[in-house]
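Task: fold both queries, return tokens.
Query 1:
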Amino acid sequence: MIVAANHPPFARIGPVAFAVSNKKLAPEALFGYAVKVLDRRGHTEKELRTKLERRAAAPASVDEAIERLKGIGFLNDQRTAESHAYARREFQRFGKRRVLTELQRRGVDFDTAKQTVEKAYSEVDEMDLIREHLRRKLSCDPDAQLKDRKQFAKVVRNLQGAGFSSGKIIEALGKVVADPEWLDGLEERLAESAEAAADSSE
């Protein structure tokens, strides 16, 4: 198919194609675009700024739009962080460490992210969260004995990736593991893996 040169390029998601505009926007149009972006999904200031910088005709209009949106309460990292933490806790059943890392990657400052996560998980029992995570994500009976070492390793990787603390992972698995020796050195291995993951995200 030949597309005329003055037509916008097309992006494709599945079988549906849609036009992608590269048009640069004047200040008022940029503000309107920002409102539409936030209306579709919550963004942090960092995320929204990245999108606006791609569309702004003048760089200064990005700061102007950001300040206007913050002034009317339409852009609020605290609120976005709270929504993110709630969704990850309730629907994904993730642990605190995973959510904290995600918020920082989204551009939420460390203090805000940490306070938000602590508040979101203040009344949550991590062991209950682990049990529910195993049911939902791995279709595992959290009380069933783990007799296969490969399955044990899979569960360990999944729980660590979900952001649960090393101590609680070991506590949970200690109740169901077929061979207690599988837990030997696990805390050190989890700590090394977490440290390597933190280094790679910087």
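Query 1 returned. Query 2:
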Amino acid sequence: MHLKSIILLVAVFILSCGKGKFTNQGDSGSIEETLNPSENEGEITTTESASLALGSKLKFKKQKLLEQEIMTSLSLSQNQICQELESLNCINEAHHLTLGGVDAYDKNIWENKNSFLETTPIVVERIVWSACEKRVALDLESGESKIFSKGSVSDSSHVGLMVSNLYQNILARDASENEIAAAKEFASNLEKNGGTYDDWARLSCFSLMTSVEFLFY
């Protein structure tokens, strides 16, 4: 991956992070999000914060559910999502315990109480990035066009159409006007910094699939 793409990826990830605080609830596997109050009482700092009720309890989509959601959203097969060392399935073999799975026969782990570990976010990002790269490659290089079709970051109307496709496939809803406008602005800024349409497609996919709305329920 080029340095420029890595920098852009980190920037998008930071911007996509809300101010919520997640705490592991142990055996239940639920995640409680406590939104940090802003300095000005009543001020909403992010779109995601506005959509979540204070003190709401969310559950992380663990191994099998996460895999199914990615397969359905990006129209990928199980082995197309992510492979470690070109042979190990990321979700079911390499990182299944980190994603809340069990291993009764090899490690005698019948119940995974640590459903959300310190390394879970890193693993999720690795899997999602791989899946988004695969979908973009299949659409733009092989011409499958399940989500993306060839275009340019300078083509605002085409970017808007692709954003709508992303939201419908990944979050199962229509993108709002503000969300479409933000995606178009991101495409414009990316173009000014030498980014390509492929970069925009991968990063846009990644930002949606690492959102609270996609990873929790």
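Both queries returned. Flag for query 2: The longest strand covers residues 30-35.
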